[in-house]
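Researcher: Quick test of sequence recovery. Tokens follow.
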């Protein structure tokens, strides 16, 4: 009998193949089945801010004319979804910009939503690490122009905004969401934004984009690690099409580029991450 893809049993998932790893990385001691599927262990020093993206071979991470274009860019890779879930399962907060919230009108930034078949394993990891069942969703919106009915806000969420944005939101958010005003006007200071999250006990913060927010956090020196899945696709671009690359709105070169060091490399078919 055919089953919908997202409820296929976990046994059908092939483990990722570990191609390279720097010795001595932090290790949470993942439950055995998670470690087998991930192709080794995973962990973070704390506090840490880590980001996760999927990009095409030609560097496209978003096609703004398409909803949920990152799923298109990931080319249906179940193993990319599995890693997305694993990274969420490690996080105290998942941090996104308002653009990413708008682009996924049905989105929920939980581990089980990324890859439902591994939900019990993600839950076990969170239990072992004495973490609540789900990470907090933290949305950055200086303007406060977000949909208060977005399903992502229906469970423990923070909206990091300016005083102007807070005034615009008023009391329109559900009770599950808390407004955190940072500064009087937009844009708000990325350093103060992360400090506010850390002050709330969120020591492991996973940034899931988009490229505008990621660029700002990187420019402020706040990003410790980037998990980048390279999907075996060319997305292309025309002169008029505003497809987004990994960093938008911030320039690093010419001048001082951001040095990156390879920590691990895994392969899932022709996807690498
Ligand atoms: N391929 C992937 O892995 C991946 C991952 C994530 C997202 N995406 C895609 O990326 C696209 C969205 O990216 P994006 O770069 O346009 O948007 P974004 O970074 O998600 O959000 C930008 C918005 O966040 C708010 N913001 C960011 N920094 C701020 C600051 N310092 N102060 C105040 N507000 C701030 C602003 O909201 P206000 O305008 O409300 O003030 C801004 O317009 C979507 O299509 C999404 O699907 C792809």
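Model:
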């Amino acid at each position: 009998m055919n089953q919908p893809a997202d409820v296929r049993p976990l046994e059908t998932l092939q483990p990722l193949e570990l191609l390279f790893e720097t010795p001595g990385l932090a290790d949470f001691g993942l439950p055995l089945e998670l470690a087998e599927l991930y192709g080794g262990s995973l962990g973070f020093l704390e506090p840490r801010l880590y980001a996760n993206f999927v990009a095409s071979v030609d560097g496209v991470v978003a096609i703004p004319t398409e909803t949920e274009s990152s799923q298109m860019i990931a080319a249906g890779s179940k193993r990319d979804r599995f890693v997305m879930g694993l990274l969420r399962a490690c996080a105290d907060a998942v941090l996104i910009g308002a653009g990413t919230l708008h682009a996924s009108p049905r989105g929920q930034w939980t581990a089980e939503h990324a890859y439902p078949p591994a939900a019990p394993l993600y839950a076990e990891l969170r239990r072992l690490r004495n973490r609540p069942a789900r990470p907090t969703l933290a949305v950055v919106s200086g303007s406060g122009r977000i949909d208060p009915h977005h399903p992502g806000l229906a469970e423990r969420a923070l909206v990091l905004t300016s005083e102007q944005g807070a005034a615009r939101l008023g009391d329109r958010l559900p009770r599950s969401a808390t407004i955190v005003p940072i500064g009087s006007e937009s844009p708000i200071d990325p350093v103060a934004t992360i400090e506010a999250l850390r002050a709330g006990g969120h020591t492991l913060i996973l940034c899931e984009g988009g490229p505008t927010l990621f660029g700002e956090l990187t420019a402020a020196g706040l990003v410790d690690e980037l998990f980048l899945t390279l999907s075996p696709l060319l997305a292309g671009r025309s002169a008029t099409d505003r497809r987004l690359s990994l960093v938008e709105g911030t320039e690093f070169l010419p001048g001082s580029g951001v040095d990156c060091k390879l920590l691990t490399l895994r392969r899932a078919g022709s996807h690498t991450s």
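The first helix runs from residue 32 to 38.
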